[in-house]
Structure formats: C-alpha cells, structure tokens
Amino acid sequence: MESIRKNKALKELHIDKEALATLSLVKEGILAPIDRLMDEEESKKVTTTKKYKRQHLPFPFVLAPAGKRNKEVLQNTKKNEILKIIVKNEYVGYIKTKNIFKIDIEKRIKSIFGTCDETHPGVKDTKRRLGDYAISGDYEVNFNEIKKAKNKIKEAKNRIQAKKVTAIMMAAKPLHRAHERLIRLTLEDTDLLVIFLLKPYKKDILSYEIRYKTLRYFIDNFLPTNKVLVVPFENTYIFAGYNNAILDSIAAKNFGCSDIVLGQNHSGIGVFYDHDRVTSVLDKINNIGIKVQIISEFVYCDQCKTLVSTKTCPHGKHHHISYHSPSIMEILKSGLLPPAVLVRKEISAILLSQLFKNRFEDLSKVYDAIMPNSGLLEEHDEQDFYVKLLQLYQTTSLT
C-alpha cells in the first residue's frame, strides 16, 4: 500500500469521508453478505431482484463519485488499472479496476430513498454526491474507526460472557426521557446492550461529542455500566433511506449482536404491498439472522402522571406529551430549559452549557444573587447554573 501511495504516475479517485466510511463498513464485514463493490452485472441483478447471495438487499453497493475530475478519470481507466483513493488531498487507499459502467442516478436515488423529490431529507445531498460512472474492483482503505468499534464490542461480550447482545441505533438528539425508558426496558432482558450512537457527516448544532457526553452521563450515573456499551456508528448516506431498518439490522448482526430493538416510529418500519401481497419490513429482516423487537411509542400522560406506552394508556392523545425530538431541539436552540418531564435537568444543563458557552458576563454574580447555597464561597460553572435554575423552576410553594 505504501508503494502505491508513493507512485506519482497513478491516477487519483477523489471521494469524501462518508464514502470512505461506507467502503470500510464493507471491508470490515459490517454489511455482509456484501463483500465488494458490485460490477455492472451484479448491480443490475440486485436492482431487479432486491437480493444478493440469497439475502434481501434493497439496492446494489456501488461507488460512483461525483465531479468532473472523477468522471474524466473513470472514462479513461482500463481493466486492472490501479487508482489511488484520495480524501481531502490525502491518500487513504487504492482500487484495482475490474469494471466501469454508467449508472442511472435517478433510479439509484429512488432505490435508496423511495423518491427523487429533493424536498426529502437526503435526496438533494445524495444527488450531489453521485456521478454518472461507477467503478468495481478489489480495494483497500485505511479507516480504523469501524475496526475499533468491532473490537470494543467483542471485548465487552467476552468480559461478561454475554449470550444475548441487543442493539439500539440512536441519534440521541437530544437524549430525552423516552430514550431513557427505552434503554432501561431493553436492559431488563439482555446481557449486554450496545447503543450505536449515530455519527453523521453533516455538521450539526449537536455534535457527536456533545451527544456522547450526555449519553455517557446517563449511563455512568443511572445504569449498570458493565451492561451498556456506546460505540459510534458511521451513519453514511446509505442508511438515510426508507430501507434503513433492514440495513441497521444487517449492520447490528455483523457487529456481533443477536437482537435489535426498533421503535414503532422507525422510518423503515411499515406495512406495504409487494408483488400483490401485504408484507412488512420484518419479512425482509427474518432471513438476516437477528431477532427484531418492535417497541411502541412512549409518551407522558397527564392523567396517568407518568411515562407510558401508547399501547397501554387508556387516555386519548390530547392527554399525551410527545417526545418529539425536533421540537425539544427548538426549545434548546432558543436557549430555554426544556421541562424536566421532557429532558433530565442534568442533560439539559450539559447541552445548554455547550450550546451557549460564556453566555453570562458574570456568572458567579448571577449565581450567588439568586441561588441558595451553603454559605461558603464556591465556584460554579454554567452547567451547575442550569441545574440549579431548573430546581428553582420546580419550586412549587408560590405557584
């Protein structure tokens, strides 16, 4: 690989980190039975049959990078020719060309998202990333994050001799009370819970690091830490479509999980018509080799006075407080503290202290003026301030 990197005569194929991560997922066996970039014949077969090596697969695995430079390279590349793979001007691997073929961009996008409508999240970005030509062939890439995650799960399983290992795919954007209930419920019936924390490639106001910090706080303070593992999940564009329940299940199984928990509102769950019969995504997952559990939606009921499942609560929707993540994020982005019934106060404090750093001109002065204290001089950070502020919100004697 080093000799290829130094060979200045070789042509270059430029891709982004998202494509690199996707290539690495295959190299590490996470998308098995996919084990290589598909050639034209395989691609057409998967597009028609929706199967690969007798397992359901919603679309073919191809590499078709966008850009005028890439298009010229691919149009002028011959069989067995070696191309360097470049990400942000850095060498990350190579591919030995087997086959180059033209793809139908619109058809590929529809196979991933179920639509070509650019108002759909992901369609516009994916269309921008796709080129007219795909390349197949053996390749090597340097991307160690997925291998680290695999090893971390294997070590955790061996440490506690876990037989049942359950996966949850979670964005935790933000981590709210319904997430907490889902995690606790899953923990009751598994030896090891693996939370795959989604790691997207678009910049977001809530970075992976902030979301990891909140999840870590909850686990370290309120759960048996030896039974819960958090690993990053490279949430590349192929997982963004309506087939993501299938792909999530394939990935979880190949990471070493025996079970996966999906919420009933998961975008990939649903009943639909296929070849004139009613079917569901579970029919597609059954042959993957992982047990799927569907969990009903959690809400707070103002009559039950607690967090409940929509399947067991007898009261109507007008009594329910929904844990709608985008709405909770709007509250946080406005700089407001979400009610503790939605988000644990310590989690809100972590988020707001990160989102609005150095918000107060003199935090200590404000803190000392309005907060009860021990009577001793103490230093307080913004995280402390938000926790205490929410405690004041919850003081009820004057309300």
Relevant terms:
399 residues, single chain, 3 domains, Rossmann fold, five-stranded mixed sheet, five-stranded parallel sheet, 15 helices, Sulfate adenylyltransferase, 17 strands, 37% helix
In summary, what is this structure?
This protein has 3 domains: 2-141, Sulfate adenylyltransferase (Roll); 145-295, HUPs (Rossmann fold), CATH 3.40.50.620; 299-393, no CATH class. Helix content is 37%, strand content 23%.
Explain this structure to me?
- With 399 residues, this protein is of the alpha/beta class.
- It folds into three domains: 2-141, Roll (Sulfate adenylyltransferase), CATH 3.10.400.10; 145-295, Rossmann fold; 299-393, no CATH class.
- 37% of the residues lie in helices and 23% in strands.
- The protein contains 15 helices and 17 strands.
- It has helices at 2-6, 17-27, 40-49, 68-75, 105-113, 123-129, 145-160, 177-187, 208-222, 244-254, 281-285, 325-333, 345-355, 363-370, 382-393, and strands at residues 11-15, 51-52, 55-56, 63-65, 82-87, 90-102, 130-141, 165-170, 192-199, 228-234, 259-263, 271-274, 277-280, 291-295, 298-301, 306-309, 320-322.
- Strands 1-5-6-7-4 form a five-stranded mixed beta sheet. A five-stranded parallel beta sheet has the order 10-9-8-11-14, with helices on both faces.
- A hairpin with a 2-residue loop joins strand 2 and strand 3.
- The termini are far apart.
- Mean pLDDT is 89; it is low at 270-279.
